[in-house]
């Protein structure tokens, strides 16, 4: 893999092509430091010769509860997904990642699995799954399923057996059961959803028992990955789904699986909760080195199957140079680029993030992934319409919080998407973003389901607002065609009707058509496998521009128009502005 500092020969050509660029005048004191790009380490990136589908794939996240309901009960299901696969194929994606649909008490919307090798009756049957994957493959779409290895549901048979077995028994060894410090938990760890990361059990005879560890909800006990039986069981789970034809896995919370020996206190827990402070030593519940051998074994299993099976780790590991260790050639194929998701949407922050991404991932020969929304963060059409900070630091907007400016949010979201789709690597889309769907920010508390809301007594509203069922056909019923009956497990806000897919289909300038056009171009021009270079002459404090496989991508983060030379061949844009202008919060693709 080559990583070139951007001092290449085509800089002069670019300057010749765009000599007439007129910039807004920038006050002296605000002269951007990104102008001196080499100082900040501007990088370029050349695609690897070893092309594999996952290196450039556009992967669409289906959140089964909210995608499409096939039986009218208000809960999305697998038959619903199958019935709408054509619309995903026509969008132009390569693969689908399905959030969990396995049997689960649904305490954390399915991320609390009670049986890893089946389908929850809420979503259908294994036969429904088989029919779905056959149809998806027939349409040329790959299927990735979510694997949740850090914790099970407390209803899983392993945990039930542990509860019914004595201290020190092999059954308890599947989890982290420990004696407390008197009446206090074994250590100071806190749950990501709020409150302590330990819950004390009551013995069958009514006496107080040991404590078990849960980095998330108390209904999600953490597995003990030191136990070879846990390791073996998961290898069988992988094979079960691979045998059924899945093209790979999205792996939940892999950085949490291995814990420091002896489960010591978290040294920074007061400052960082259960989280991570960049630059400081790894907290005892995250990023432990021993986890890498597990992924190496999983990679061997995936590689032993025909076709290119791939796994993407939800590894919240920073800095990116550290994350890159997770995508070495014998580990994960991809990780989510949380640095990008979390970057504030301004030129300097995006410039640094893109540089760091190529630098880190190129160093191990892995593709970068890019993502702007998922089921855990505020949808970017709303997040960018207000001052909500880092994506992963804020979960949800409640009715009493400052409300987003939806028009500005959508304008910025479309521009952010078109900018991101121009980058080489693999792109993750979250269902509904192709409609420009905003967050539901006025959901009444009585509908809330996210454990975060309950574990923080409502202080954090949680993630329900980005998980609301999709509107398909405007006005056909109360849920705009999400279900046949109008039922929906979370009610849509009134405005969702206006974002319905049928209102956008075939309508030039709609967000849906913008996505379709960009995905088609991305594929036709092979941008996912392309070569990236900043076009330095066009970059400044409010403007980022780069080239990739013969196109120029330019994004205006500022508030003043940018003028381009007349006559450049237009490819795509997020507004209907004139060809020679890039308006505030617009992205354009032009021919180089
Ligand atoms: C991941 C999932 C999130 C879930 C958590 C615990 O971050 O994306 O939805 O709550 O893991 O499984």
Strand order of the largest sheet: 11-10-9-5-4-3-13-12
The helicity comes to 25-40%
Global morphology:
globular
Structural class estimated from helices and strands: alpha/beta
Largest sheet, strands/sense/barrel: 8 strands, parallel
Mean of residue pLDDT values: 91
Rg over CA atoms, rounded to whole Å, is 24 Å
Strand content bin: 5-15%
> How far is the N terminus from the C terminus?
25 Å
Query: Given the structure, what is the number of helices?
Result: 18
Overall number of strands: 20
Residue stretches low in confidence (pLDDT < 50, at least 5 long) are 1-33
Bound ligands, each once? alpha-D-glucopyranose
Features:
about 600 residues; alpha/beta; 8-stranded parallel beta sheet; 5-stranded antiparallel beta sheet; 18 helices; 20 strands; about 25% helix; globular; binds alpha-D-glucopyranose
Describe the structure.
The longest helix is centred in the middle third of the chain and has 16 residues. The strands form 5 sheets. This protein has an 8-stranded parallel beta sheet. Strands 14-15-16-20-18 form a 5-stranded antiparallel beta sheet. Strands 6-8-7 form a 3-stranded antiparallel beta sheet, with no helix packed on it. Helix 8 runs parallel beside helix 10 and helix 15 packs parallel to helix 18. By secondary structure, it is an alpha/beta fold. Alpha-D-glucopyranose binds next to loops.
């Amino acid at each position: 893999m080559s990583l070139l500092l951007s001092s290449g020969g085509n800089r002069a050509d670019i300057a010749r092509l765009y000599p007439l660029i007129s910039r807004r005048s920038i006050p002296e004191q605000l002269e951007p430091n990104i102008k001196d790009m080499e100082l900040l380490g501007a990088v370029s990136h050349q695609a690897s010769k070893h092309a594999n589908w996952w290196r450039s794939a556009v992967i669409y996240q289906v959140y089964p509860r909210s995608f499409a309901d096939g039986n009218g009960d208000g809960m999305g299901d697998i038959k619903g997904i199958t019935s709408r696969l054509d619309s995903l194929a026509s969008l132009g994606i390569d693969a689908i990642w399905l959030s969990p649909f396995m049997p689960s008490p649904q305490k954390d919307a399915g991320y609390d699995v009670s049986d890893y090798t089946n389908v929850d009756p809420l979503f259908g049957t294994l036969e429904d799954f088989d029919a779905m994957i056959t149809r998806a493959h027939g349409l040329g779409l790959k299927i990735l399923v979510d694997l949740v290895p850090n914790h099970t549901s407390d209803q899983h048979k392993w945990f039930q057996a542990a509860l019914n077995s004595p201290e020190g028994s092999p059954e308890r060894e599947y989890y982290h059961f420990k004696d407390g410090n008197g009446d206090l938990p074994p250590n100071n760890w806190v749950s990501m959803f709020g409150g302590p990361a330990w819950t004390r059990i009551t013995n069958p005879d009514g006496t107080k028992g040991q404590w078990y560890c849960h980095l998330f909800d108390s209904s999600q006990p953490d597995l003990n990955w030191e136990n070879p039986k846990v390791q073996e069981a998961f290898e069988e789970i992988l094979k079960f789904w691979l045998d059924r034809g899945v093209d790979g896995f999205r792996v939940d919370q892999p950085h949490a699986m291995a814990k420091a020996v002896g489960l010591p206190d978290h040294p920074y827990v007061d400052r960082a909760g259960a989280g991570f402070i960049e630059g400081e030593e790894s907290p005892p519940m995250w990023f432990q080195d021993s986890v890498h051998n597990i992924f190496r074994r999983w990679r061997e299993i995936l590689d032993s199957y025909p076709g290119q099976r791939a796994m993407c780790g939800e590894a919240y590991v920073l800095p990116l140079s550290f994350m890159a260790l997770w995508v070495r050639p014998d580990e994960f194929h991809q990780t989510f680029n949380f640095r990008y998701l979390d970057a504030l949407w301004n030129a300097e922050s995006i410039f640094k993030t893109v540089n760091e991404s190529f630098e880190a991932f190129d160093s191990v020969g892995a593709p970068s992934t890019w993502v702007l929304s998922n089921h855990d963060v505020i949808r970017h059409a709303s997040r960018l319409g207000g001052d909500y900070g880092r994506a992963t630091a804020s979960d949800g907007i409640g009715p009493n919080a400052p409300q987003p400016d939806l028009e500005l949010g959508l304008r910025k979201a479309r521009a952010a998407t078109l900018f991101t789709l121009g980058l080489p690597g693999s792109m993750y889309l979250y269902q509904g973003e192709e409609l420009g769907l905003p967050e539901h920010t006025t959901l009444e508390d009585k509908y809330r389901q996210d454990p975060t809301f309950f574990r923080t007594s409502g202080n954090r509203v949680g993630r329900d607002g980005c998980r609301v069922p999709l509107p398909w056909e405007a006005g056909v019923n109360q849920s705009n065609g999400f279900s046949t009956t109008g039922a929906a497990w979370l009610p849509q806000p009134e405005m969702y009707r206006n974002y319905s897919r049928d209102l956008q289909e075939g309508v030039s300038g709609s967000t849906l058509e913008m996505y379709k056009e960009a995905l088609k171009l991305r594929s036709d021009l092979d941008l996912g496998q392309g070569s990236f270079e900043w076009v330095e002459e066009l970059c400044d404090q409010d403007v980022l521009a780069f080239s990739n496989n013969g196109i120029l991508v330019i994004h205006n983060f500022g508030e003043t128009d940018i003028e381009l030379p007349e006559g450049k061949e237009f490819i795509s844009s997020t507004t209907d502005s004139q060809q020679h202008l890039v308006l505030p919060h617009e992205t354009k693709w032009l021919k180089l």
